[in-house]
Structure formats: structure tokens, C-alpha cells
Design brief:
With 384 residues, this protein is of the alpha/beta class. It is built from 22 helices and 5 strands. The protein has helices spanning 15-27, 39-48, 66-74, 93-102, 114-122, 129-145, 149-157, 159-162, 167-180, 184-197, 202-214, 218-231, 236-248, 252-265, 270-282, 286-293, 295-298, 303-315, 319-332, 337-349, 353-366, 371-383, and strands at 7-11, 33-36, 52-57, 84-88, 106-109. Strand 4, helix 4 (93-102) and strand 5 form a beta-alpha-beta unit. Helix 11 runs antiparallel to helix 12 (218-231), helix 12 runs antiparallel to helix 13 (236-248) and helix 20 (337-349) runs antiparallel to helix 21. It holds the Pfam family Response_reg. This is Response regulator receiver protein.
Length: 384
């Protein structure tokens, strides 16, 4: 049971809907409530309040919807186990599956039924299945970090009878452990068990795709990723993995579309662009990445990544492009002696003698005793 004295946060952009939920809570004996009109406001309340024991949220809301609120909460250790109930008019199986993947505790369809509502709320507390699984998963994570995979599997196996309603999730976690242990065939068998119980578990389809990729079954991986994206069409990780798979299949045009869709999900997130670049780099297709996405990718890369790419281009004799990349890198990190030295080398071979000298002098000023820079500057001085 929840603590009648602690607070429940009700999130909905429609005030009468919030009032209906709050009135039901009062009938059940829960007198302390807080309200929020959208996900952003809910996060602000959570930041300031230490006694929130449950969040009840609508799905569709302005600024930040309920799914993004749930995703934000589950990404924070302080809220990852906090019970979360969706009370929404969205009843499609794909919606329920997405919420389940993100870690919703209960899912209720509007209009509100007081009997069902009472049953769901009163069943929560320290003994609810999600919190039990979450506690065990913390131990599993520690086991895996110590490479004690057999102990991790034993922990999860013990939950199968104790938490029958979460068997698909438990099998998924067990398959993930086997994957980390390098037991690919066993992982595939267990993830199939998870999907046989709940074929709408998007993360299980994603894991199945990763397992197929390990055995270079590219077409099977592609099919599994497409299935995952049918369930969760706004998952950037799935699109990135699909793009990687399509590059292995040499379907570069479709791969580009997949990467673009990943970026469109969260245009402000540089990690998506960086991951896209890393995938193209792995396939030795950096030039294609540049041609496809241009400055969109280049501008988000770190100075170290840009430096490494410029060095590779310089070795291939593409001096002009290397010089351009160093210019971008130095805007990000103008006082990096190593970067200044490499940029000076490219300037020299590209015919810009004066700028090469200036950059070498600056590198030596920043790092006295920089032998390579001093030797190269001496060489340039003699040539002049």
C-alpha cells in the first residue's frame, strides 16, 4: 500500500481532468496531491518535492508529453523506481507497448473507472512488481560489471515464478546478460521466449537484431529492427542501428534515410549525429557522410575526432580538405598545441607557409619544449 500521508502528483493539461483524479484520490484517503499541466511542469515539481510517491499522468500534453516525462524520469536514478500510472485515451497496443518498454507501472484507459482506479492505486507500494524487478536489476548490473554472469542469470531466474506478470521483461533481461557473456545462441533462444510472451516488446526486437548482427545475418537483423520501429517509431537508437545494418547490406541510400530519421527525432541532440559519424567511420565511408550530411555532422564532432579525420585525409593527400577541417577544430579548441601543430603541417603542404609558421609559434608558446613543433619551425625557417 502507498502511504496515505505522502504526496501524489497528477499531470494533465486539462484542469477538470486533474480535479477528477484528485477527487478520486481523496475518496481513497489520499489527501496530499500536487498538480502539473504538462511534463516540464511535472519535472519541476519533482525537483522541488521530496515526498512524491506516485505520478499519474495523461499522455497528450503541450511542451512535454507523458511519454517524454516517463522517459526523463526513468533516465534519472532518483526517479527510476517511482511508480508511474498512465491515465490516457490512447488505447492502441503500440502505445501500451511503448509505455511498457519505458517502464510504466500501470496503464489505464479513460474514462476513469473508480473501481479499477482504486485497485491499481492501492496495489502499489514497496512490493509492486516493477520495484521488485528494479531492485534485482541493480544486483544484475553489479554482477555483469564483475563478469559474474551466472549469478546474474540466477537472480533473474528466481523472479520468473515470483513475478509472472513480468516474465517477458525478465526473459529480455536474461537474454541481455547472455549477450554480454558472449553466449549468442543462448541469448537468441531466451529473447525468443520474451517475444513469444509479448511480441510488442520493442527492446526485445532490438536485442534480437543485435544478436543477428553478431552472426552477420544482416537481412534478419533488418527485419527485427523494422519490427521494433513499428512498435516504437520514434526511437533514435533503433534507426541508428538500422542505418548501420543497411550499410552492411550496401543499401547506402536507405541507410542515409534511416540516419536522417534518427536526427529528425531530436534535432538538438549531438549524440545522434556523433553516433552517425562513428558508424560511417567504421564502414570507411566518411566522405559519403560528408556528402550526405555536410556541416550538420562536421560541426558537432569534437576537436579530437576532427583532428583524427584530418590526419587521415592528409595521409591520403587531401590537403585542402584537411586544412578546412583543422579550421573547424581550432574554433572549438584554439589553444590545443597538438592540433595547432597538425594544422601547421597541413598548411605547409597546402602552400600556406606564413600561417604554418604562426601556428607553430603559437603551439610552442602554449607548450614550451614541444620538440616536434620546434624542429618543424626550424625547418621552415631555413627554407625561408
Amino acid at each position: 500500500m502507498l502511504d496515505k500521508e505522502k504526496t501524489i502528483l497528477v499531470v494533465d493539461d486539462i484542469q477538470p481532468s486533474r480535479e477528477t483524479v484528485i477527487n478520486c484520490l481523496r475518496v481513497l484517503g489520499y489527501k496530499n496531491t500536487r498538480e502539473a499541466a504538462d511534463g516540464k511542469e511535472a519535472l519541476e515539481v519533482l525537483e522541488k518535492s521530496q515526498d512524491i510517491q506516485l505520478v499519474i499522468s495523461d499522455w497528450k500534453m503541450p511542451r512535454m508529453n507523458g511519454v517524454d516525462l516517463l522517459r526523463s524520469m526513468r533516465s534519472e536514478s532518483r526517479w527510476e523506481d517511482l511508480p508511474f500510472i498512465f491515465l490516457t485515451s490512447k488505447s492502441e497496443s503500440e502505445d501500451v507497448a511503448e509505455a511498457s518498454d519505458l517502464g510504466v507501472t500501470e496503464y489505464m484507459i479513460k474514462p476513469l473507472s473508480i473501481d479499477v482506479f482504486a485497485e491499481k492505486v492501492d496495489s502499489l507500494g514497496s512490493g509492486n512488481p516493477r520495484q521488485k524487478l528494479s531492485t534485482v536489476l541493480k544486483g544484475v548490473k553489479k554482477d555483469c560489471s564483475r563478469k559474474d554472469f551466472s549469478r546474474a542469470v540466477t537472480r533473474l531466474t528466481g523472479l520468473l515464478e515470483e513475478l509472472p506478470s513480468m516474465r517477458s521483461r525478465i526473459y529480455f533481461e536474461m537474454a541481455s546478460v547472455y549477450f554480454q557473456a558472449g553466449e549468442i545462441k543462448r541469448a537468441r533462444a531466451v529473447v525468443e521466449q520474451a517475444l513469444s510472451i509479448n511480441h510488442l516488446l520493442g527492446k526485445a526486437w532490438f536485442l534480437k537484431a543485435e544478436l543477428e548482427k553478431e552472426e552477420q545475418n544482416w537481412q534478419e537483423a533488418r527485419a527485427s529492427l523494422n519490427r521494433a520501429l513499428e512498435i516504437q517509431p520514434r526511437n533514435a537508437d533503433y534507426f541508428l542501428c538500422l542505418g548501420d545494418t543497411l550499410l552492411y547490406l550496401e543499401d547506402n541510400m536507405k541507410a542515409r534515410e534511416s540516419f536522417q530519421r534518427a536526427m529528425n527525432i531530436a534535432p538538438e541532440e549531438d549524440w545522434i549525429k556523433t553516433r552517425t559519424w562513428d558508424i560511417y567511420l567504421k564502414h570507411d565511408l566518411c566522405r559519403e557522410a560528408e556528402a550526405s550530411f555536410g556541416s550538420l555532422l562536421i560541426n558537432c564532432l569534437s576537436s579530437d575526432v576532427l583532428n583524427n579525420y584530418a590526419v587521415a585525409l592528409r595521409k591520403k593527400g587531401e590537403m585542402a580538405r584537411a586544412v578546412e577541417l583543422y579550421a573547424v577544430a581550432l574554433k572549438k579548441d584554439p589553444d590545443n598545441p597538438g592540433l595547432l601543430f597538425n594544422a601547421a603541417v597541413s598548411d605547409y603542404y597546402n602552400g600556406n607557409f606564413r600561417r604554418a609558421v604562426n601556428r607553430l609559434e603559437r603551439a610552442i608558446e602554449l607548450q614550451p619544449g614541444f620538440a616536434q613543433a620546434e624542429a618543424f619551425l626550424k625547418k621552415l625557417t631555413k627554407e625561408s
